[in-house]
Amino acid sequence: QVQLVESGGGLVQPGGSLNLSCAASVDILKANVMAWYRQAPGKHRVLVAVITKDGITDYADSVKGRFTISRDNAKNTVYLQMSALKPEDTTVYYCNADYGSGPSRRLFWGQGTQVTVSS
User: Which among 105, 57, 107, 104 has a CA at the least distance from the CA of 78?
Assistant: First the structure.
């Protein structure tokens, strides 16, 4: 079982920055990918950013140029640096880990951290 613990959410003014962290209970190098998702009330969870074990990253169009995903393998932690935040970035952000392959592949989720962008 993989446990993911997010932190770093909070209230920030438009144009501000926040840094989210996701600490994993197991070696993140064994994960296929690590990712951040977000989910607004009544909507589907959507991918924000993803990073592979080789450090390849990808982002949703809505956050490109503003958000940066990174990882510290020694700390088993993935980060999401968010800048130039907009009110529409307000929602709950979830860390995700993809482990295993074939029948043993599993997705794990953190509990979520609230990000609120408001003046």
Answer: 57
